[in-house]
Each structure stands twice: as structure tokens, then as C-alpha cells.
# Entry
Amino acid sequence: MRKITIAKGDGIGPEIMDATLRILKAAGAELEYDEIEVGEKVYLSGNTSGISDEAWKSIRSNKIFLKAPITTPQGGGYKSLNVSTRKFLGLYANVRPCRSYHPFVETKHPVMDMVIIRENEEDLYAGIEHQQTDEVVQCLKLISRPGCEKIIRYAFEYAKSNNRKKVTCFSKDNIMKQTDGLFHEVFDEIKKEYPEIENEHWIVDIGAAKIADTPEKFDVVVMQNLYGDIISDIAAQITGSVGLAGSSNIGQECAMFEAIHGSAPDIAGQNIANPSALIQGAVLMLNFIEQFSTAEKIQNAWLKTIEDGIHTVDIYSEGKSTKKLGTKEFADAVIERLGQEPTSMPAVKYAGNVPMNLPKYERKAPRNKELLGVDLFVHWHGTNPDEIAGKLQKIAGSNMNLSLITNRGIKVWPNGFEETFCTDHWRCRFLPENGGTTNEEIINLLSGALNEKIDVVKTENLYAFDGKRAFSLGQGQ
Ligand code: NAD
# Structure
């Protein structure tokens, strides 16, 4: 018996979890449950994280968490439990299979069977945001080499283990050359270790358009957190319904399995919710804990139920469906079909997959880091860049050289355009022409700024790593 933690969640959560647990039991899953309370009640009791220390203990000791959707109350500074669970437990890979069930569930894309692998821990979701001036706020996009390596390796290993043929990478490295550039670079490194798997890269905007238009051309697709959040919902929706997709969140130690939809408070307590997405989450979980034959049994019975036209109201359509059932009755129909296989759609076979090989990330030897200069971000209410440039040149001293001023990334000095719209947030780059600089020189520069009443809201050091410039140029530089 394998002990797992479960949470019934809010809204339709308890109904779809009960349906799922009944199917697991009937299929002979070797599971014991430790039930915890998370979500709305916990939030409203004054715990802004939505989860108690006891509940964390249960998840950390059982390491497997099957979670129904929860309601995050609006306002009041409540933290998203999903985001904190993923980050605290290091669940770096969010795996979202998106396939259509044509002709049984209506879809514009009858041939579609892709898996989106979304990085789950970093990117703009680090939640590091600041207001710097009256007019400008920032959100830091943090991308790490371990983050990229772990998720991209996961995508290739997933493809290999699940007999998939191609891994596609999405990034926006034509614009974000450092962050998305690193993601693409690591993809190019790791793909070489998997010559048997086809690979390709698309800029995320056209890639997303292609997914919406010709999803049948994609197999495994790997991307950063924000792109993955948006695009996996699109991909799930165009299969016919977000209500059919489960997802897994995988880490080195722990894993969480869930439906991708929310707690649907509008239909809670009416026995009409579709439990399929959580059932899919449970199937992913059974595969993860290597109870392959139970996973196959449930998935094939579920496919047969869908194929027999036995549908909940959200996917019911005259002509395609034969019966409209409630949540409980749908689960009964799946249970009745345990041991059967679909006849029109292919039956699944999970046992015998090559196990995934995911070694722990090993930190690389430090590289040679050289300080070349500094960007001072200045809050200034003026409008003529020549004026602020004059002040800054005065404090530059003999070695520091003001080389550039940008406003929201656009070069405005020297030789800017009058037409460029400027805010009160100026990025002023000091980059000595000959050789690098030192921290002492940067501190002197900041003292000079203080004396001249220049309001520096942030500094960013400019480095080269192993002799290679490691910062972006200003647009127009
Ligand atoms: P939602 O996914 O709950 O609902 C969107 C629409 O889809 C609703 O009309 C709903 O009735 C329908 N729907 C969703 N799941 C269904 C199912 N299984 N069967 C039939 N119909 C279904 O999204 P929302 O309304 O934006 O969010 C409601 C709450 O859920 C919010 O509090 C939100 O924070 C939370 N949420 C939780 C999770 C999670 O726990 N993983 C994810 C997303 C949203």
C-alpha cells in the first residue's frame, strides 16, 4: 500500500474527489489516504497561505499529493496555495497532457495529442515586484541555468519514456537575449544528448499561433512558466474542454497531481461537475508511483465511457452523446467499464515504458566573472536627457564614462529622438571604455549622485562571464 496525501478542496472539489476515490478503489489501486484540509476554510480562519503546518508535514512525509481545486478568496493578501506548493516543494515540472477525444467530444481539432511541459518555479512568477518611481513598476524575470537544465532534460526524458517523437521549445530569445536566450541555449545543448528525438524551436508568439491552428503538428512542448501557463490553457481548451485535462507537478522529492480547472463555485453541490480532469490527474499519479496496470485499467474504462457517449453536462451534445449523467453516475459508469477497452479510440498501454533518468542537478564550477560597469536607474522628473546626462557626467570622475541613457530600454542619449516618449525612470549606463571597473568606483559614483541629489532607485552591475558580455545593449545602441 502506498500512502498519499489528499485534499478535497472547495466548490466542486469534494464531489469530483469522491468520484475519483471511488474509481481508484474499484480499480484496486494500492493506496492509503491521509486527508488534509487546504483552501478557503483555512484561508478564512486567518492563515494567509491556505495550509497548516500539520498539512505540510503530511505532504512532505507522503511525498505524493492528490489535490482537488481550491478557492482562493479575493483580496486580503491570500497567497496562491498552488504557487506556494509548487515552489516550496520544488515541483519544477508541470506536465499537462492535452488531447482531443474526437468524435466523442466536440473539437475543432480532431487530431491532437500534445503534452505541454511548463517550468514551474521561476520566471516572472518569482513574484519580485517593485515600484521604483511615480510612473514605473518592475517585475523581475529570473531564469536560472539549473531551472532550464532541469525542465528541458525533463521534457526529453518524458518524450523518451513515453515513446514520443519530438520536443519543441518555445522562447522569445529574439527580444530577451539573456533570459530566453539562456533557455534556448540550454535546449540546444541538451537536445544533442537525445539524437533519436526530433527537436525544433519556435519564437513563442508564432508557436502559440501554430498550436491554436495546427495542434496536430506538436508532440512534447517545453517552455517557461508564464508562456506555459497561458498556452497550456489554450491547448486544453481547444481539445474541447478544460474540464478534461489533468496535470502533474513533479519535483525531485515530491509530486502533486490535480485537475487543471478551478473550483467552479457556480456549479458546486449540484452533482453536475465533470470529474474527468481529476480522474486524469489520478491516472498521472498512478503512473508516477508505478501502479501502471491500475492506471491503464482506469484510463481505458474512462475512454470507453467517453466513447459510449456517456457524458456530463459540460461536454454533452445532442447527436454525439447518448446519456447525460451527474458526477456520481458518471463515476459509476466508469466503474462498470473497468476491465474494458475503448474500441474506436486507441487503448492506452503504460507498462513497459523506459524509466526516466533525471539525475540531481550538479552545480558547475564558477566562471570567470569580470565587472565591466554599472547601470544606475534614476528617478528624475525632467524631460530633456541632455540635462540629466550633464549632471551624471559631472559625477563620473576620471575612470567612469557615461556611455548611454535609455528610457524603458530605448536609447534617448546620446543622439536620441525627440519623438520618444519618456517616463520618469532613466537607466544610465557607466561603461569605462578601457577595461573594467571596481566596486569602489561604483560606490564613489553613488556618493557623487547623493551629493548632486540624483535619486538613484537601483543599480545593476554589468559583468562579463568568461570574457563574454553578459548584459543586453540598449535598443538603438
Ligand atoms: P473554474 O475553472 O473554476 O471555472 C470556469 C468555468 O468552467 C465555470 O463556468 C465552471 O462551472 C466550469 N467548470 C470548471 N470545472 C468544471 C468541471 N469539472 N465540470 C464542469 N464545469 C466545470 O475557473 P474560475 O471560475 O476562474 O475559478 C473559480 C475558483 O477556482 C477561483 O477561486 C480560482 O482561484 C480557483 N482556481 C483554482 C485552481 C486550482 O485549485 N488548481 C485553478 C484555477 C482556479
